[in-house]
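Researcher: Here's a chain I'd like modeled. Treat it as a single chain, no partners, no ligands.
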Amino acid sequence: MEITHVPVRFPEIDVARGIAVIMMVVFHTAFDLRFLGCVPLNVSTGFLRLLALSTASLFLFLVGVSLSISAAHAGTRLTRKDFILKYVIRGAFIFALGMGISAVTRIVIPSEYVRFGILHLIGFSVMASPLYSRSGWQSLLLGAVFIALGPVMAGIRGSPWLLVSGIHPPEFSSVDYVPVFPWMGLVLTGVFAGTAIYPAGKRRPGSPGFTFPPLEVLGRHSLAIYLVHQPVIIAVILLFSAVLGMNFAFPAG
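Model: Modeled as a single isolated chain. Structure tokens:
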């Protein structure tokens, strides 16, 4: 998802983000068909599980790439204080959107509502980004540590207050759970890639880009699409169900 204004856009990043949007819509369509009882799909294993993990990974990696480019430009025109404030405010806004998702899912699916999902993680990562967004190899090494610690943290049972870290209570379940370990490692890896591919926030001389306008449009509006796509998908499914005379077995909250 696009997380901050970038003075110079690189179309290939928007294309990649647009691909991630399509992957997200495909997975959530399958998820909603299963959730509404239309099709007995298993979204927790196999191809659909791989699709979900790949989609989240691509989004978070691109967040890191975009952060590195944005920080390279912002660092040349902002004071240190304003630089920090810029990303704290932007990150807090995205985190607040995540809290909105938590509130809605707490009502709709209280047994599996979103405590710390992808928007929470992106918001947290953006707020913390002044600490790492202009570091290349350091971000790669730190990202590797975060990823390596993921399975360790996931194997520890503890208080719900530790959910952000990957530690969670027994029998914990959520429709969207993206803890700092290992997932912030993808953001950090993206920062490394961004500093390597776009040094000082600029394309390397002679480095080819690529463009595909339809995907670029999706990529540029990925955050807005994320916020509205689920209600739209569910509305379309319900519309088709009404036309076809289908009945749904809604899961108990």
